[in-house]
Amino acid sequence: MIPLSTLKPGQHARVESLAGEPALIQRLYEFGLLEGEDVEMLAVAPLGDPVEIRIGNTRLSLRIREAACVTVSLL
Amino acid sequence: MTPNTITVALVGNPNAGKSTLFNALSGLRQQVGNYPGVTVEMKKGHFTVGDIRVNLIDLPGTYSLAARSPDELVAVDLLLGRLPDEPAPDVVLSIVDASNLDRHLYLTTQLLELGKPVVVAVNMVDLAATQGIGVDCAALSRDFGIPFLPVQANRGVGLDVLQEKLLEAAKSGTAPEPLALPAALEHETTRLVVKLGTAVSPFQARRLILDVNGATEQWFVAKLGDGLSQSLGEIRARLAAAGCPVPAVEARTRFARIREVVAKCVSKPTIRPVNRTDRIDRVLTHRLWGSLFFFAVLFLVFVSIFWAAKPLMDLIDQATKWLSSLVEGAMPVGPLRSLITSGIIAGVGGVLKFLPQILILFAFIAVLEDCGYMARAAFLMDRIMSRCGLSGKSFIPLLSSVACAIPGIMATRVIENRRDRLATILVAPLISCSARLPVYGLMISLFLPAEIYSALTQGLMLFGMYMVGFIAAPVVSLVLRKTLLRGERSLFVMELPAYKRPSPPMILRRVIDAGWSFVRRAGTVILATMILVWAALYFPHNSPDGFGFDERAEVLSDVAKSTDDDVRDKLGDKPIESELAKLGLDVTKPPEEIREEAGKRARATKAEHQRQSYLGRTGRALEPVFEPLGWDWRIGVAALASFPAREVIVGTMAILYEVEVDENNDPLVSAIRADWDTSSVRGRHRIPVALSVMVFFALCCQCASTLAVIHRETRSWLWPTFTFVYMTVLAYAGAFVVFQVGRLIWN
Description:
The structure holds two protein chains of two kinds.
Chain A: E1 2-3, E2 12-18, H1 22-30, E3 38-44, E4 51-55, E5 58-62, H2 64-67, E6 70-74
Antiparallel strand pairs in A: 1-6, 2-3, 2-6, 3-4, 4-5
Chain B: E1 5-12, H1 18-26, E2 30-34, E3 41-49, E4 52-58, H2 70-80, E5 91-97, H3 101-111, E6 118-123, H4 125-130, E7 134-135, H5 137-144, E8 148-150, H6 159-172, H7 183-196, H8 202-210, H9 215-224, H10 227-241, H11 248-265, E9 266-267, H12 276-284, H13 287-308, H14 310-330, H15 335-352, H16 355-371, H17 373-387, H18 395-400, H19 405-410, H20 418-427, H21 437-447, H22 455-482, E10 494-495, H23 504-538, H24 549-561, H25 564-572, H26 574-582, H27 591-611, H28 614-621, H29 623-626, H30 633-641, H31 648-656, H32 666-677, H33 680-684, H34 686-699, H35 704-714, H36 718-745
Parallel strand pairs in B: 1-4, 1-5, 5-6, 6-8
Antiparallel strand pairs in B: 2-3, 3-4, 7-9
């Protein structure tokens, strides 16, 4: 179980849990980032923050701090 | 409302193709509706089916009805029919993207709870098919109990059936069956409605419970008191104990149902194929290649603005010149001719010249936004921008500000965090806009004459002036975020939409809108300012001896220009002789000396005319203020006159130095240079003076329209006042430092 922010580009993982500020968590849920879903780390911005992830056909940009609120397990 | 009119609200995620569908349905029959007190801009259009008129309202794109800002709350209130001046929609039209149905249906399931008929347009079915995604709309309609219709908004496919279904839904008026939410949640919702009474609808009560510290909660707490937040806390604790934690419960319930239906109704490949967006993003969000591409795009935009626009700008210049000479040939000398040529044609023409640049920049921004690249630019720039107290989303507004701060400030609406947005609005006017170009151009040719310095040196100087804004903006925003706008860091959860081919009609529409609002501004604010400046420099225009200054100067320069014979003729003519005597010319002197004397006096008369004019008197009274910047009263007057619109400076300088602005400003440059050479300060320190003028214009908020837009976007007079004051102080301090340091360096 690791934070989503530590994935490397190309790695897939399964969402285990979300914890943090309610507004952030609600927004992530609305994008379909739910427990049990698969996520893929796509890219890291040039200065190491933010990161680009994919859930289904949705691509999201998250800051490292925000991605750290999502716990995943590597697939 | 007549039975022959129905109202349809169009709702959908950003990038679902909402604007395209709106345009396809309503064509050119559109207007933008603004709502008092908020910045929500909802487009309204209409179309007719048979004898029924359908009014269409385009709501801002949103992922959810969980309102997070007062603006989003207004959109929800409109859907609920709670806006006093707006009819409640008869039908809600939900648009979803066929290739990302799961996520888009989340919002649709929330719309089912509004108590209004819902029709769903499944857009881009063709694109989804190329990815192997097949959507069975008939099955979806059965499962959700509302019509699902395949459309291709960009090609206008499926719109007839859609219109028909909208009418049918309006006629029946039956609300769909909402999705079943957990019993514990529904129980708490009902209890809350009973407790709060008629003030709250079940929909709002549900949002109160589910949106922790959302806009609904803030609005009702302000209205009903802090007791409400305490009871909401208790309700959420009870729900968590019952296995329905907020906010997870809503998403889990909705997505569970959506997944179940989608599994039946949507066929897709078991292994997700690599699509076009995947391949493009592998390069464009790559650390190295992505950054290189980003800078290449920026470079291309700048090159196009400055080089591609040149021929068109020259054309407008020539048209201005031609018009000016036409008027001069047709009109006698006098106040009116001076107003028309120096004031109106030079002033407005000098501004319209920048139209090609504005159009090119807007075309670029529209293309980059429409194809989906702008979100990638925000992704790449977020780290740098957030270091300065801004966010990646501030990048687009600041880039737009290179053309003009007004669209830049309007583009800040995409920034959700209030402090981020305010910081971006307050620093956007510091970015050098196209209206600063004429000042920079004039001053650079003054101290870096083209005969001596290469175009490269001049270009580097121009680049340096742009850097002044690019450095000042982040520094100011950092200071603001540490002082006035202190607060928690914002969220940066942003969707990176799938790439798509930009749609030419959409881009054309945006470019025309931008161009038209610019032309309108040139025709109003700038025209009015030029007329005022001209009048303030022209009146009073009678010298003590009863002659009008301009008539007197005209007679004197006539004499100065005349040939020997003419002068003798004039001397032989008694009335003129007496007039010449009245003008103080010694008629007994030889014609050559008379001519020389007349020329001198003509220039002195013109100078005296300006010095004693209302603006001249003001300028001279303020001379002690301008002196530490190295300016004389004329530069001061030009800067003062430019406060409503900075472009006015070139026209004002032209009036001040009595030259017609044409032939690429050259006569103006030499006239200014000749004047400065006669002064001990400006003759010796030409470079620091020119630099101080440029820095002042770079940092000062000389634009009434920008201040008006800041007022409109922030809904207060505080922020435009603050912007005006801080930028004026910054500009004065900057110009002061540049001149004082500069004169030590170039001593």
